[in-house]
Input
Amino acid sequence: MSIPARDRERADALRELLHHHSHQYYVLDTPEIPDAEYDQLFRELQALEEKYPGLLAPDSPTQRVGGKTLEGFAKVRHKVPMLSIRTETDIEASGARNFDARVRRELGLKDGDPAIEYVAELKFDGLAISLRYEGGVLVQAATRGDGEVGEDVTQNIRTVGQIPLKLRGAPPVLEVRGEVYMRRDDFERLNELQREKIARGAKNEKTFVNPRNAAAGAVRQLDPGIARQRPLSFYAYGWGEIEGGPAFETHYELLQALGRWGLPVSDRTVLAMGADELIAYHQAVGRERDGLPFDIDGVVYKVNSLALQKQLGFVTREPRWAVAHKFPAQEQLTTVESIDVYVGRTGKLTPVARLKPVFVGGVTVTNATLHNEDEVHRKDVRVGDTVIVRRAGDVIPEVVAVVPDRRAAGAAVFHMPATCPVCGSAALREEGEADHRCTGGLFCSAQRKHAILHFAQRRALDIEGLGEKLVDQMVDAGVIRTLPDLYRLGLANLVALDRMGDKSAQNVLAALEKSKATTLPRFLYGLGIRHVGESTARDLARHFGNLDGILDASVEQLLQVPDVGPVVAESIHAFFRQPHNREVIEQLRACGLHWEEGEPAARAPQPLSGKTVVLTGTLPTLSRDEAKELLEAAGAKVAGSVSKKTDYVVAGAEAGSKLDKARELGVAILDEDGLRQLLAG
Ligand code: IVH
Output
């Protein structure tokens, strides 16, 4: 068949593009486009090559299973090739039906024949790894590489706390396969650290695009010392070579045996009869996806019987007995329509990317915060750019990277405005600070609006019905300038506003009246003092007992309050030294705001004050939040990571790298019973 020039050129262009992107992805760990986009290009090329076999070249990216090996690691030839898995393109329920129908057809089953038993698993979004145990001891770990030859990453894998160095009761030779991944919380913390390093001027540091990328980067990091600072997790889902040991008949039994031998296996793996139960699993996992502590990009279905697996065999490099059924992508491409600057309650200016609406991670995203000017420059986001947007779990959507070769010529570098976009006051960035702030204070109507909304919110003065629209109107009309003005409103002021009837106006006045009876913590929180959140407000109220004590407290006295450090103490002190803030407080009291006051709390003895505790793993009866609450009530500080300053690590089941770190640093390790004894003093 002759090949039209257009198709030949397109195939060449696709090959070029795919080579470029797979190099970025596999070798440099710096992808420039989301996976979904890569898959689409890949499928387009595959379709062209299927249509015109003459186009097929041996070096086509479609002819390779996985990535490429990185210079610097020894090569490992897999005894049993590490296969790829076919992806069901249909995201809807029919994906599971198509797979079941294919399997039944291959096995020669008819309509009335019994349903097939499957194992349904999560499709973890990380990096495939093969672990070789000999005599129960981990002797080698390898990446998949191209499926035939991978990289020897044993040194790095040994640093992963969840991967046992020794198994109990395993066969003499066991090659386990599974996924190394990074939990979302570990990923966020890692990027936080990276950002700090960059802010301190470290060269050659970068933030990671997503947990999978961070995990891949860590495993394939040439320096095991650096690899060990990147918290990784692991789930086993299969095996390669097995020699000796008991015989197994099903995939499920083998997974359970892996668990008994000491390997982490997911407790979300289930047996499913026929297509209906696969569909039910796909839907249930789809609903739970956001709440999982790690990213998944779909589910995997596998025929449970090993005999049937054998009978089904393979097509090219994909088994006929397994399929991946994906979920909507958590990363998408879109364009930046503008970069607006938003003014917050404390005057902080935040650049926000307004995006062409895009459906990602199950929601339509129209804007994403860019945090501050440095962040915009680090990612080099410009108006008109094509960007990768990520939304995973309940994490807010983020612009993770720009696609450099889709930038229009002449796209301008973003600069923070020198003046506040709302009030025109100077916008300044203080030495050593990342944020620009409007210097207008309560002269700035944006700050005034936020201050009033903050004061009125449910957790502060709880003024029902005083929402954003109403506050906007009142501030714009000049009816309200300061907080006490709220309590001087009359019916006439309110009904003069747009769309405000008699009844609604009366409701607002009633809500204002009701809010006058409040509590000291609510009042303090409502003032909007920088760094004073609800819990600090509660601590202050408990410590001092009454407002006057707080108004006149010195920085030293404020530092006596549990959890109040120098920055917070300074901020509180500075706030109350401002005459106009004192004036506002006096006027609010004069308007009738009141609360119960008391004496300074005689501090109950706190057995754990000054102690730092880290929680890891799952405790038998206490949830993590419960344990944290108990510890904090006893005066302890609960930290997220283990350091020399940690006094105790409380470890439960499936405790990971934090436990290793504790052992390494010689930090005291407790189980739940130990924790209870500690709390009891
Ligand atoms: S089974 C022969 N099960 O998805 C079947 N793979 O190409 C081999 N993956 O990168 C794969 N979760 O690492 C299997 N529960 C799971 C999986 C899983 C994630 C990854 C795997 C590979 C890709 C499949």
